[in-house]
């Protein structure tokens, strides 16, 4: 008996994400690094994203990946309103072997209702957090229901850590899913020059979007209680193109009061390596966080992190011991933890660095995603092109 011919496919993997490069966020970076990493391994990869900046092309090839962008007609808070997004994802997914959704996403239920005839992997990054307000409360409820539907219709679900999953508002749904914990991929940023260092005093650094959920107001207050005139607070990250609005006004006001604070803006490439080489301690004082790629990359450079006691966000410190954990919004605790970690010696920092590199490196992450995607593919059919084999196939996907 002859098997029916399989439908033609253009891609091995279709990635659906609301914001994509050149936009910068932790979620976007996970999508980009996994997409480009698998493309480098020979996978044919497409990304479907909203055209968050009208200056961007609707189609282009970035890092070996075909990027399809859909028009945006409005924004609500951080969310984009792109009427053709869901249908475009479905169209590209039908000609792909696997669909990879990055959640939370307003349109996720629309993408998966009715069901697609391809395996669906959803990476659930974080419970949506928006500042208080009626519109945001309504938006959060709508997204929460959409995500719940998508998780139920996913073939498999990825989370950054079991800690994140067990404390999620979606945990009742996640318990019924084929769940795999894969930490976010983190780049090795070592080898930079301490070009942002100004004095011999302690240098504390933050790197990330300057938005309300990062808790920067608590960091500048805690730093203000460190009286050393040679101390510096280096604040790097985007504040001009961030979805939902930035807190740059508050940050600049703090810098006007305290001339030891430096606002560095968006850093890219070697500038990030130089940033990590310039700081003694990394601070991530978030009030909402699911992992914190920047803190893990700091750890991989031998810089301990002081972070808040949030499910998922505390996981890099718990997994490596490379830092301290404090309650959210607790300025005295944050100040004391910064002072404490500044005293750590080289041996402690190097041991934590080695653990962080082993746990959070890019290749380990790509191996786990590739194994998961492959495990969902149907049996090979004669004449059909399969994604290329890779040495990662020798490893088990860790759950």
Automatic annotation (TrEMBL):
<feature type="region of interest" description="Disordered">
    <location>
        <begin position="380"/>
        <end position="399"/>
    </location>
</feature>
<keyword id="KW-0328">Glycosyltransferase</keyword>
<dbReference type="InterPro" id="IPR028098">
    <property type="entry name" value="Glyco_trans_4-like_N"/>
</dbReference>
<feature type="compositionally biased region" description="Basic and acidic residues">
    <location>
        <begin position="382"/>
        <end position="399"/>
    </location>
</feature>
<dbReference type="Pfam" id="PF13692">
    <property type="entry name" value="Glyco_trans_1_4"/>
</dbReference>
<protein>
    <submittedName>
        <fullName>Glycosyltransferase involved in cell wall bisynthesis</fullName>
    </submittedName>
</protein>
<dbReference type="Pfam" id="PF13579">
    <property type="entry name" value="Glyco_trans_4_4"/>
</dbReference>
<keyword id="KW-0808">Transferase</keyword>
<feature type="domain" description="Glycosyltransferase subfamily 4-like N-terminal">
    <location>
        <begin position="26"/>
        <end position="183"/>
    </location>
</feature>
């Amino acid at each position: 008996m002859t098997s029916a011919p399989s439908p033609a496919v253009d891609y091995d993997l279709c990635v659906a994400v609301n914001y994509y490069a050149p936009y910068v966020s932790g979620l976007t970076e996970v999508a980009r690094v996994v997409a480009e990493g698998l493309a480098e391994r020979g996978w044919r990869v497409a990304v479907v994203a909203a055209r968050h900046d009208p200056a961007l092309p609707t189609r282009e090839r970035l890092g070996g990946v075909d990027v399809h962008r859909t028009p945006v007609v409005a924004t609500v808070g951080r969310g984009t309103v792109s009427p053709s997004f869901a249908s475009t994802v479905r169209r590209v997914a039908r000609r792909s072997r696997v669909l990879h959704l990055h959640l939370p996403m307003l349109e996720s239920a629309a993408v998966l209702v009715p069901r697609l005839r391809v395996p669906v992997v959803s990476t659930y990054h974080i419970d949506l957090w928006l500042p208080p307000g009626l519109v945001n409360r309504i938006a959060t409820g709508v997204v929460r229901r959409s995500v719940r539907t998508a998780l139920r219709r996913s073939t498999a679900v990825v989370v950054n850590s079991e800690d994140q999953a067990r404390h999620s508002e979606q945990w009742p749904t996640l318990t019924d899913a084929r769940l795999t914990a894969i930490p976010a991929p983190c780049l090795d940023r070592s080898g930079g020059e301490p070009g942002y260092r100004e004095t011999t005093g302690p240098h504390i650094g933050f790197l990330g979007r300057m938005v309300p959920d990062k808790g920067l107001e608590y960091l500048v207050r805690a730093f203000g209680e460190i009286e050393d005139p040679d101390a510096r607070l280096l604040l790097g990250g985007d504040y001009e193109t961030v979805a939902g609005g930035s807190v740059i006004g508050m940050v600049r006001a703090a810098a006007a009061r305290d001339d030891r604070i430096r606002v560095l803006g968006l850093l890219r490439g070697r500038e990030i390596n130089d940033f990590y080489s310039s700081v003694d301690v990394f601070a991530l004082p978030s009030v909402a966080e699911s992992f914190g790629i920047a803190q893990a990359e700091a750890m991989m450079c031998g810089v301990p992190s002081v972070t808040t006691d949030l499910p998922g966000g505390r996981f890099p410190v718990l997994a490596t011991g490379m830092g301290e954990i404090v309650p959210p919004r607790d300025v005295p605790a944050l100040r004391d933890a910064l002072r404490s970690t500044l005293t750590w010696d080289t041996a402690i920092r190097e041991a934590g660095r080695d653990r962080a590199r082993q746990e959070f490196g890019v290749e380990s992450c790509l191996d786990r995603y590739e194994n998961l995607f492959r495990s969902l593919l149907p049996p090979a059919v004669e004449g059909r092109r399969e994604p290329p084999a890779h040495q990662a196939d020798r490893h088990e996907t860790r759950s």
